[in-house]
Amino acid sequence: MATRHASRLTHRLKMRWPLIFAASGALFLVAGASTVRESYREWKVDQEIRQMQSEIERLEGKKLTLAELIQRLDSSDAVDKEARTRLGLRKPGERVIILRGMDDPASWQDDTALAMQTETPEDTRTNARRWLDYFFPKPNAQ
Fold first, then answer.
1. By the 8 A CB rule, do 123 and 130 touch?
2. N or C, which end of the chain is more exposed by having fewer CB within 10 Å?
3. Are 102 and 108 in contact (CB under 8 A)?
4. Measuring CA to CA, how many Å separate 121 from each of 99, 116, 117, 118?
5. What is the full per-residue pLDDT of the chain (142 aa) written as tens digits?
């Protein structure tokens, strides 16, 4: 009877080993899957960190160039240049010459002498006289 009882016991133990092995394998798969999932999440976070660092470097470079531009534009020369080009202002005693339709600087010629010749002499008439001449022009002699 003791041998029969021992035989049943070993038979039961032999039957449990596959169950224990299967349970251990399932537990190993669950633990492995969660480890892989966490490793993937960590890799994604590292990728985002690297991406944000490169974005920070790009923006810092842009910030430096904008700071240099601000510093350049704050100078009196830059303010003077902007006032001349955008607002059409000039210093007292300066003459402004505007060239239109001159896209190619190589085709420019020295037209200062021509500009001096085509300038009209300063009108010394009074304002009232100009109005009279405007409304009542003198007939041209032909």
1. yes
2. C
3. yes
4. 21, 10, 10, 9
5. 566 666 776 777 677 778 888 889 999 999 999 999 999 999 999 999 999 999 999 999 999 999 998 888 888 888 888 877 787 777 788 777 777 766 665 555 555 555 555 556 778 889 999 899 889 988 774 4
Cα 25 to Cα 39: distance, rounded to the nearest angstrom: 21
CA distance 128 to 56: 68
CA distances from 57 to 3, 23, 45, 71 (A): 80, 51, 18, 21
DSSP at 1: -
Cα maximum dimension of the chain:
155
In a 10 Å sphere around its CB, with 0-12 CB exposed, 13-18 middle and 19+ buried, how is residue 96 labelled? exposed
